[in-house]
Structure prediction request, 124 residues.
Amino acid sequence: QVQLVESGGGLVQAGGSLRLSCAASGRTFSTYIMGWFRQAPGKEREFVAAITRSGGNTFYADSVKGRFTISRDNAKNTVYLQMNSLKPDDTAVYYCAARASFWVATGQADFDSWGQGTQVTVSS
Prediction:
C-alpha cells in the first residue's frame, strides 16, 4: 500500500479558491489511479474526482464539474485538487485515495489506500 498525506485545507469565503495536495510515499505512485473524496457532517463520504495513472484522463462528480480540477505530478508523487468558486455546500473533510488498478472507479470500496483527511470550510 501507499501512504498518503493531504494538506492545503482551511477556511475560505464563498467564491474563493483552495488547492489541496496529497503527497504519496513509495516509488510506485505512477501505477495508482488517484482520487479525491469528501465527507460533510452527517453525510456519507462521496466521490469528488479521479485521475488516471498518466494524468491523461480525469473524472468528476456532477456537483464539482467545472469548478474543481484534479491533476498529478508523478515526478513529485503528488496529486492536487484545485477548487474554485467554492460554495458552503463544499464544506467537508477531503480525503485523498489511491487505487492499485489500471481501471478508474468512483466507489469508496474500489480504493485501497486513504489519507487522514483535510478540513475545508467555506463560509457564506
